[in-house]
Amino acid sequence: MKEWMVTDLAKLAGVSVRTLHHYDAIGLLSPVRVGENRYRYYGEAELLRLQQILLYRELGMPLETIGSILDDPRFDSLAALNEQRSHLAAEAKRYRQLIRTIDRTIAHLKGERAMQYENLYKGFVTPEKQAEYEAWLKDRLGDSTHEKVTASDSAAKAISDQDMKERMSALAGIEADLVKTMEDGTVPQARALDPLIQRHHAWVAQMWGRDCSHDAYAGLADIYESHDDFKQRYETLSPGFSKWLPIAMRSWTRRVKES
Amino acid sequence: MKEWMVTDLAKLAGVSVRTLHHYDAIGLLSPVRVGENRYRYYGEAELLRLQQILLYRELGMPLETIGSILDDPRFDSLAALNEQRSHLAAEAKRYRQLIRTIDRTIAHLKGERAMQYENLYKGFVTPEKQAEYEAWLKDRLGDSTHEKVTASDSAAKAISDQDMKERMSALAGIEADLVKTMEDGTVPQARALDPLIQRHHAWVAQMWGRDCSHDAYAGLADIYESHDDFKQRYETLSPGFSKWLPIAMRSWTRRVKES
DNA sequence: TTAATCCCTCCCCTGTCGTGAGGGTCAAGC
DNA sequence: GCTTGACCCTCACGACAGGGGAGGGATTAA
């Protein structure tokens, strides 16, 4: 007849001693015997019961319900399981919906960033293109909960024309260097690009007036690729550059994330 | 300039007044202005902020993290969202696994019931069939965590031969009535069957020595259909009965569940 | 004998509110 | 002017499932 003390049982079942105390306190799992020194001793039946408890606990049942199931043999565990199953299925569905919501929110934020970015590109594209781009953005956003915030936000962050010109010429310098590197035959995955891409990344962060996380930077690469205005702009600089640049951005991102 | 008091805002956003008090207490959402009477007054900015809070809260973020995101503009919400997304995806996956575990447990329980039921059928099938059936059960169970409990459990619930004979003759009577009804041309979905099926259900419950929930009863119908020994036994009583009976059991279950 | 390692109980802490108790405020109706 | 009812406030306790630690007794190996 094996017997275990709290720590043994705790290690066996992978729970804390405190948890066993708790289960004893609420009457969910009592030791088979308590010594004169008040030590708790558990037997095989308790181990089995603990396993059952953990099974149901895993399923997200409150401890009280678990107690009812295990104590009351009239309690139909099959029905309880079926109910729990549908409960879990509902939760899983909710999570899937939340994930979709997040995806939309992420797309939204990327759109917002694109909008700010776009703000700075006003000098480049024609007004017609501008309207077209905004329509595309709207179409992409879908969820419009934050639309107002976004709009007022980016309006508040408008920059003076002088600043913008300076920044744009800085960008032109960086881009020219990148183009030259590409034309020298450098592949976009090359580590040699790191300093240049870093300059580009820093420029973007300065432009946005806030930190530019790696994810955000990779998101910008997506935008460069997925919208024709950007594609055309970069393709004009040099053939192939519109594909080369996003790859370079993303592979730099991966590298700095790993290190 | 619109202004709301706690209850208005609470109703607008679908939270409780207490929640707003709490958010004020922890500094997550303070009213734009507090009256001399200490009433809380909220403006549009607060409404917007509350919506943001609820969005992140939905995603399972702790309130403190939400506060950081919203208060610190340097906090990268895109990165936070990406992280949250993978967190949610992991949770969803966990739920799917839990559902599979439940399904296995349910199958297990059904097997256990079938075992008990089988115990009572020992008089009917030959010993070879018996072994075959047990092999099938084992194959079906897969997960063997509770095997010992099950075995000792059903052993403890063994019934005297005399009792068994009485019960089997009671079953024979019920089954004969059911067969007659079927041969009279009654469809298994007919309400007219209710009293008869009820007798059958009561017999099953008595046999198991515990309540027989509707789900368990429907599960028994599955077993009747899926195992040849039962199929053959019922087919011997009358051609077609092995299909008719499970349908009748399930449609009765549906009816009593609905009412 | 001493030190280390168990064990115990008792108590406070977490986060997100729900649910009162007890009391102030405000507008309307009598 | 007074009451009524519908608001509002603060304060405080409880629920859940334990975590963490203090303080003290028991056991055991060196």
What does this entry look like structurally?
Two copies of one chain form a homodimer. With 259 residues, the first copy, chain A, is an all-alpha fold. Among the domains of chain A are: 4-75, Multidrug-efflux Transporter Regulator, Chain: A, Domain 2 (Orthogonal Bundle); 159-259, Globin-like (Orthogonal Bundle), CATH 1.10.490.50. In chain A, 73% of the residues lie in helices and 3% in strands. Chain A contains twelve helices and three strands. Chain A has helices at 6-13, 17-25, 44-58, 63-71, 77-120, 127-141, 147-156, 161-183, 194-208, 214-226, 228-237, 241-258, and strands at residues 4-5, 33-34, 40-42. Chain A is elongated and about 85 Å long. The model of chain A is unreliable at 115-159 (pLDDT under 50). The A-B interface holds A 48, 51-52, 55, 58-60, 73-74, 76-79, 81-82, 84-85, 88-89, 91-92, 95-96, 98-99, 101-103, 105-106, 109-110, 113, 145-146, 148-149, 210-211, 213-216, 219 and B 48, 51-52, 55, 58-60, 73-74, 76-79, 81-82, 84-85, 88-89, 91-92, 95-96, 98-99, 101-103, 105-106, 109-110, 113, 145-146, 148-149, 210-211, 213-216, 219. Chain A binds a DNA duplex (30 and 30 nucleotides) through residues 5-7, 16-19, 21-22, 26, 35, 37-40, 62-64.
The unreliable regions of chain A are 115-159
CATH-assigned fold name of the domain at 159-259 in chain A: Globin-like
CATH classification, class level of the domain at 159-259 in chain A: Mainly Alpha
CA(first)-CA(last) distance of chain A: 55 Å
Q: Describe the sheet with the most strands of chain A.
A: 3 strands, antiparallel
* Count of runs of 4 or more consecutive helical residues of chain A: 12
| Share in helix of chain A | over 70%
Sheet with most strands: strand arrangement of chain A:
1-3-2
Strand proportion of chain A, as a percent range, falls in under 5%
Based on Cα principal axes, name the global outline of chain A.
elongated
Total DSSP E strands of chain A:
3
Assembly status: homodimer
Radius of gyration of chain A: 30 Å
Largest protein interface, residues of each chain: A-B, 44 and 44 residues
Structural class of chain A: mainly alpha
Query: Looking at this structure, what is the CATH superfamily of the domain at 159-259 in chain A?
Result: Antibiotic binding domain of TipA-like multidrug resistance regulators
- Whole-number average pLDDT of chain A? 72
Tell me the series of helices and strands of chain A, N- to C-terminal. Answer: EHHEEHHHHHHHHHH
CATH architecture of the domain at 159-259 in chain A: Orthogonal Bundle
